[in-house]
Design brief:
By secondary structure, the chain is α+β, with helices and mostly antiparallel strands. It is built from 9 helices and 11 strands. Pfam families: HATPase_c.
């Protein structure tokens, strides 16, 4: 829980940092954009005045300063329209045209678009305001880049946050894997010595009391312990699956569970008449089915009920449904049932379904999920496995 809380806190901090950086970037960029817009507007006003001076100049007017102002604009796209809407001059426009006439048509269209957006400065050339020019201007390339910059920066920050969170989750998962593998192998190691002693004691009991009917059952339970230790020892490795008759394996699990389950719970099966061959690691997959059956028994809470194991198949897939008539799972918990540590029981570690998911998906490349669940009526888990083709 401490690790989970730490991860949650780090994620919150990263998200808050990303929001702060994004907001600060947008505020600063907006301020810079407004300042640059005002500066370009001021430059265009000076440029428009120079155009007015040029249009009203006579043979005694010194045009050196006017021409310098006009020629110094190398960044802001500008189009000059007369009072009839015709282009008289344009510059700093990237036009793809095959002729001068084509360039004028395109410049005229752009000029009227800017005029419609009120991006123009009108200069009157006479006192009666009949003759005038419209200096239409667009944003410079620098201004456009500054306008887009915060969004690019925001994307980079979000990408960084996503990568950081993914790295944290991967680190968490790797640490969990190491803990589980170490715990499993240590458990198998610790069980080895007492199991060996129990096997020896059972053999002595068989020789001493050859007619006792309880000793064979004790022998089965000891062998069961040996199988469990073997399962724990395989966690963390990738045991090679072999072609296995799924129905025979399920019958073995049903037989074992039926002998050790309350008589009030019936375990039913619905299997095809022929063999169903699947690549399996038998001992680990039995563990999955046992976990599902034990959870089903717990879900009934000691009341009368039934567990149904049903196998269906298609050309490529095997579908195994484990259904019970227990208390069901609430909708808000369905997405959490396979999460390590999640449990609705008063006692339990919440690892059974998590291990089952890992065995099915990582070791057998299949799928396991809650097919359906109704509170008060029961739950169905589905396992999907690829069919083994000879």
């Amino acid at each position: 829980m401490q690790w989970t809380d730490r991860i949650r806190q780090v994620k919150i901090i990263l998200v808050v940092m990303a929001i702060v950086i994004a907001v600060a970037s947008l505020v600063v960029s907006h301020s810079m954009t407004r300042d640059l817009e005002a500066q370009e507007r001021s430059r265009m006003e000076v440029w428009a005045e120079a155009m007015r001076s040029l249009n009203q100049a006579d043979e005694n007017t010194d045009l050196n300063l006017v021409l310098k102002v006009l020629n110094d604009n190398n960044t802001i796209p500008v189009i000059v329209l007369d009072h009839k809407g015709q282009v008289t001059d344009f510059r700093n426009l990237a036009l793809k045209a095959s002729s001068h006439g084509d360039s004028l048509r395109k410049a005229t269209a752009i000029g009227h678009e800017l005029l419609a957006k009120n991006r123009n400065i009108r200069i009157f050339l006479d006192g009666r305001h009949r003759d005038y020019i419209d200096v239409c201007y667009d944003e410079s390339l620098m201004l456009k880049r500054i306008s887009w910059y915060p969004f690019v920066q925001l994307g980079v920050v979000l990408l960084f946050v996503v990568i950081a969170i993914f790295a944290l989750l991967t680190s968490k998962r790797a640490e969990q894997n190491k803990v589980w593998v170490g715990l499993s192998k240590e458990t198998a190691h610790q069980l080895g010595t007492p199991i060996s002693s129990l096997i020896a004691w059972v053999e002595i009991l068989k020789e001493t009391y050859p007619d006792d009917t309880l000793i064979p059952e004790m022998d089965k339970d000891v062998k069961r312990l040996q199988l469990i230790a073997d399962r724990f020892s395989k966690i963390g490795s990738l045991p090679a699956p072999v072609p296995t008759d799924l129905l025979e394996l399920l019958r073995h699990v049903v037989d074992y569970m039926d002998r050790r389950t309350s008589r009030r719970v019936k375990i039913l099966t619905s299997f095809p008449a022929h063999q169903v061959i699947v690549d399996l690691n038998g001992s680990l997959f039995e563990w999955v089915i046992e976990n599902l059956c034990k959870n089903a028994v717990d879900a009934m809470g000691g009341e009368t009920g039934s567990i149904l194991l049903k196998v269906e198949e298609t050309e490529s897939w095997i579908y195994l449904d484990v259904s019970d008539t227990g208390k069901g799972i609430r909708k808000r918990n369905i997405n959490n049932v396979f999460r390590p540590g999640f449990t609705t029981k008063k006692r339990g570690w919440g690892l059974g379904l998590s291990l089952a998911k890992r065995i099915v998906e990582e070791y057998h490349h299949g799928h396991i999920y809650v097919k359906e669940s109704v509170v008060g009526k029961g739950t169905t888990f589905r396992i999907e496995l690829r069919k083994c083709h000879a």
